[in-house]
Amino acid sequence: MLNYNAAAALFVFSTDRKNILKKENFYDQDISATQKEAFMVTQHTVYLALGSNLGDRQTLLRAAIQELQQIVDIQRISSIYETEPVGYLNQPRFFNLVCYGKTTCTPQELLKRAKAIEQQLGRQPSVRNGPRPVDIDILLYDTRILTDNTLIIPHPRMHERAFVLVPLTEIAPDVVDPRSSSTAQELLQSVSLDGITRTNVQL
Ligand SMILES: Nc1ncnc2c1ncn2[C@@H]1O[C@H](COP(=O)(O)OP(=O)(O)OP(=O)(O)O)[C@@H](O)[C@H]1O
Ligand SMILES: Nc1nc2c(c(=O)[nH]1)N=C(CO)CN2
């Protein structure tokens, strides 16, 4: 691994001639804490599932993705699927999608930000599995297995939900659920695809 000086020197070398001259006076104290952090922060790969079944679902999912971009460098987004409600049946159909990207957030920070986005987009307290403008679930965080009072990763119900596994398999068929060691496409084989329709709705 490069030390700060070496990394910073490389950075300087890769820019213009004026900066190359600067290198001669380059000492450790020239690097701010922020620059050090920029060299050291770890990127984590996260998979998120989004759902919406209240209001203008397309606009709400678009807004949620835009907000998430502030904290996750989103690399891929699945199609939008229209899905029959699962769990609590007497509610409108959902739009569901899955995305993945890189973040420097810890799992708890990510959960906090996701919950804040849900609220910002109008989510009110409701029954479990009930209707909501936007729901954001953390499916996977690197290959971590984590269980605490407020957060379980991998998401404890992802393996049984076609509305998650279908879009997940579309964008990452080989991603592995570290709890079962099965890939997304393997998990998909164990669930019914009834009630899942791929749409042409664009974000
Ligand atoms: N992986 C996870 N992603 C998001 N929330 C989680 C996760 N694990 C645990 N939770 C907790 O679940 C709580 C309830 O979340 P939420 O209200 O979105 O549930 P739900 O959408 O009704 O049901 P489900 O969790 O089955 O999708 C959250 O406040 C959060 O603390
Ligand atoms: N089709 C569908 N059903 C659900 C969904 C969802 O996103 N899509 N979310 C739930 C609670 O998170 C409960 N039921």
TrEMBL record:
GO biological process, one term: folic acid biosynthetic process
Transmembrane segments: none
SUPFAM superfamilies xrefs: 6-hydroxymethyl-7,8-dihydropterin pyrophosphokinase, HPPK (SSF55083)
Entry EC number(s): 2.7.6.3
Signal peptide: none
Reaction it catalyzes: 6-hydroxymethyl-7,8-dihydropterin + ATP = (7,8-dihydropterin-6-yl)methyl diphosphate + AMP + H(+)
InterPro entries on file: Hppk, Hppk_sf
Descriptive protein name: 2-amino-4-hydroxy-6-hydroxymethyldihydropteridine diphosphokinase
